[in-house]
Write a structure and sequence with these properties.
Distance between the termini: 47 Å
Number of helices: 15
CATH superfamily: Aldolase class I
Radius of gyration: 20 Å
CATH class: Alpha Beta
Strand order of the largest sheet: 1-2-3-4-5-6-7-8
Order of helices and strands: EHEHEHEHEHEHEHHHHHEHEEEHHEH
Shape: globular
Largest sheet: 8 strands, parallel, barrel
Helix content: 40-55%
Strand content: 5-15%
Number of strands: 12
CATH topology: TIM Barrel
Amino acid sequence: MERKLILPTNWDDSLLGRVQAFAPAYLYGSLPGDPTLRSPLLLAATDENDIELQVGRARERGIKFTYVMNATCLGNREYSEDGRWQLLQRLEWLSGIGAAGVVTANPYVMELLAENFPALELHVSVLAGVDAPMKAIFFRDLGAKVIHLDPQINRDFRRLEAIRNAVDCSLSVLVNESCLLSCPVRQYHANMISHSAESIEGRYYVDYCYYKCSVARGTDPVQYLRSPWIRPEDLHCYESLGIDFFKVAGREKMGEGPSSHTGWITQVAQAYSSRRCEDVAALLVGLQTIETPFGSALEAPRVRIDSARLDGFLRYFRDGHCDLDCPTCKHCAAWAGRVVQVAGSRADYVGLLQSDLETVRVGSYWAGAR
């Protein structure tokens, strides 16, 4: 079986045995204390010894491991003597435990990697925003082994083809992200999460951007369909363009501890391996319950996206008709009416979200911040 899947790990000992049948090419993950594009509150607890053990066990099964260092902002600490030393120490440790490579969005870290640890593969993060041929060429010239393309262009087949023709390194698409298409706060969100450990320590952390996106989806369900995820049944469309890997997001989907997440990773891996699913929404990240500033949870509406009824939806994009004029185009809205089902009161949910946002705006959440 050709190895095309890139899967998250939650460090559960049973995960490798359960996903081995799907022949993943890579697993990826990180220590929760290292700055990445996931809040430490959402990542499984682990330590360097546990990571070393899983990296070795994965390698025995023919599965490579890449370590995630994809924070979009390090506060310029990487240019300080201590910051640069810490980066080099982390890279040296990864090289020593047999990791295959590093996922990063920081071009300075890329240069440190290429100069000091050329045996480690460079994987360019989706947060580097590679959405055009010239960007891909830039990172290829920095030594990229794999470029994880900006998911915002997942349905722009002309752009994907142009990037494929421009570079000879491997290309990967992120298949199950539910972020808003053309999200106006995407970069701010990435920078905010990059510094989340600091705000958690200071007891003022709140995921303002996730609130805003949840309001947008709750107000207009067509947003669920516009999000640039890729249906398992449509992977062949990307293979025909020369896409090498399909990356599954979700190392933060924790539930009640690491092992509770293992079933979900296995479910998503099976769907993209078999290229079939019933409900696309069940595979997506970014639809989870919101943790409020006061430590309680707002249960999100149950969303279902009927995969079988989506046959033909992607043809509009493959034929080059989408110009991102969403306010006037009715393609996604027409399909959403047939395939998207939302259980529960959207109005009540949006009202609770708006109430929490008002609490954040006036600052009264500080008293309850964790």
